[in-house]
Amino acid sequence: MPLDNLQRHSEVSMKRFWDKVDIKSSLECWDWQASKNHKGYGKFTFQYQYWRSHRFAWYITNGDIPEGMHVLHNCDNVKCCNPNHLRLGTNSENAKDRKDRNRYMSGDRNYFYGKHFSGELAASSKLKSTEVSQIKDLYKNGVYNMTQLGQLYNVSKTTTRMAIRGFTWGPV
To answer: DSSP character for 103?
Structure first.
């Protein structure tokens, strides 16, 4: 690929990436707003490769990630892509960091050291509690059906149904 086409492709990809991040002040978390993996980490495709969103944020801000290194979150928020909240670390540093901060995951992606996180605190959360309340009201009052609400809030019909029926949010 000619250099100018590669550069343009990269610029388009950078814009596409940052468009999926809720950018706030440099001190706040910048949450990934698009698809996430089963552990709640953002997923992004660049030049036919899948990246975790925080790793891609590091890469485009700081350059290559050395072989065997991890990109660690200072903020304990797996959705965060704020480069100011990220740092490089080894596998053992990552494991120690998880243990020291009591955030080691079991098989349940929303269960950390005896605490179950649901709603906005769940790693895979796509909605805020205010949005779930609005969705429930709009559905209850017959304003929209589940498919329309999913489209309105940019989530799947299944996510909408699970929120309305209380499977993922409980009493909101």
So the answer is: -
Closest-CA residue to 162 (of 148, 150, 144):
150
The answer to whether 31 and 79 have CB atoms below 8 angstroms apart is: yes
pLDDT digits (tens, 9 = 90+) for 23-55: 999 999 999 999 998 788 999 998 888 999 999
CATH 3.90.75 fits 3-117, yes or no: yes
- CB distance 20 to 33 below 8 Å: yes
Residues 66 and 171: their CA atoms lie apart, in Å, by 45
So where are the chain's domains?
A: 3-117, 129-164
Tokens describing residue 161? 């149904």
pLDDT tens, residue by residue, 55-92: 999 999 998 999 999 999 998 888 999 999 999 999 99
Cβ distance 7 to 91 under 8 Å?
no
Give Cα separations from 33 to 79, 115, 120, 124 (angstroms): 8, 25, 13, 11
CA separation for the pair 139, 40 (Å, rounded): 27
